[in-house]
Amino acid sequence: MLTIRKTLLVALVIAATAAGWFGKTVAQDPVSSYPFITVFDHEKVDASFSKAIPAGGSMVLFRRSTLQGPFRVNTQSRDSVRAVCPEQGCSHAGFTAVVYVVSGAATLVIGGSSAAAKPTAPDQFGGQPIQPGESHRIGKGDVIVVPPNSPHWYKDVESPFRYLEVGTP
Q: In sequence order, which residues have a C-beta less than 8 Å from that of residue 39 and are 6 or more positions away?
């Protein structure tokens, strides 16, 4: 009877050790370390662009809070006059925007006088026009990285001007 108990106890210790080793190995697997991987097929992205137009030009496709800060992906559709940034520009506090142009074209105006760099409130339009600034013609396939607190705006828009904007801390 004592031999059976010892054998059973040894078997349980071995099983517990193996389970701990296996659990540690699985926890280090890169795939299981990133359980928040999300895939959006083209139909969902297109639907988000379609919803952005009546919503004023912007629609959240994805949002996630992490230890590094919030991440988000917006679909931006600048097809109407009210959806295009005014001359006072756009400026985002607290995040860098990575822009990938999906369709259309526009003239991106960046920089300007120091008075232009004073938005009325974080993440809002405001301040003085950022003329003259630097003008860059952008179109499908272009990528633009806009650091925090950098006034910018789009003019001379060729519809449909659509882009993905990824906000990163």
A: none
What residue has token string 């969902």? 44
- Alpha-carbon distance of 148 to 33, in angstroms, equals 29
Judge whether 93 and 150 are in contact, CB under 8 Å: no
Q: Which two tokens stand for residue 54?
A: 């009546």
Q: What six digits make up the tokens of 127?
A: 């301040």
The pair of three-digit structure tokens given for residue 40, joined into one six-digit string? 């959006």
Residue 86 and residue 56 in contact, taking contact as beta carbons nearer than 8 Å:
no
pLDDT digits (tens, 9 = 90+) for 47-58: 999 998 888 888
Cis peptide before 160 (omega within 30 of 0): yes
Q: CB atoms < 10 A from the CB of 95, how many?
A: 19
Distance in angstroms between the alpha carbons of the first and the last residue of the chain: 64
In angstroms, what is the C-alpha Rg of the chain? Answer: 25
Burial state string for 26-55 with b = 16 or more CB within 10 A and e = fewer than 16: eeeeeeeeeeeeeeeeeeebeebbeebbee
Report the predicted TM-score, pTM, of the whole model to 2 decimal places. Answer: 0.67
pLDDT digits (tens, 9 = 90+) for 7-28: 555 555 465 555 554 444 333 3
More confident residue, 48 or 79: 48
Q: Over the chain, what is the mean pLDDT?
A: 74
Give dist(CA 83, CA 51) in Å, integer: 13
